[in-house]
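# nightly structure sweep
# worker-07 picked up a monomer target from the shared queue
# config: single-sequence mode, recycle default, output format = structure tokens
# input follows
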Amino acid sequence: MTYSFVVEPVSVLDFDSEDELIDRCKEWNLLPATATRVKTYQYKRNGLTLPVEIVGYVDSLTVVIQFENKQQHCIHPSYLKEMQTAAFGQRAAAAEAAKADDSTEVTEATLPAVNVLEEQESQEVPEAETASKEILAAPESADSDSAKQETPVIPQKKAAASKKKAAVQLPEDKLAITAIVKEFTTVPNHFSDNDDEVIIYEAVSVEDHDLAIEEVWSSHSATLKKLELNPGDKVSFEAKIVAKKLTQHPVKYKINNPSKMKKIESDS
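# output follows
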């Protein structure tokens, strides 16, 4: 079963770990300050109550949730929080009854704490607009903002994503990987005044899989910093590979939650 109301994210920022997910949820007031575990949330709409999990975000005002059928949906964190209250369905029903007199359908966009992506306003979602520019083949001119909003951008992105999946079928499980550290760099972080540190790896080899992947990237976490890696170091680790382009770099795939990472000493 698919849901027609879903507003699929154009570009999703993943959480590097469960700890980061918990911290983000605390920032959005979706978890109490003392929480140590994530929780399953409820999405309520048109008489439905659906279990969902938070799988990423677009920006500080847009959370990405995922239904049991794997569809992803963009929603404002305050609106998701409101859905967790017992009285939410009653208020929504009352709002629908009031709007019925005017033959106006009640949507998430008409309620408090709107989902900023419902209207696809590029001014309020700079992250999504940036991803849009990266996927489109040719950039638009600065005086064509109105035409840009009318362009069916999402279908084009879906087509591009389909081509990527057709080219490389990524396994769902963690993989045994060897690679060489290519370089260290940084990318902007919209939640912090400081940029995020990342590592780019090359010469990627996946045990028991023949994947057409030459480069991957990961966050340069505190755990990885303890290894004191340098460009040219060969490493082995276990991780899941996901299709997520590194901002401002031509690296299309990311490794999530690398574990058991160690340097491979050269024979010389």
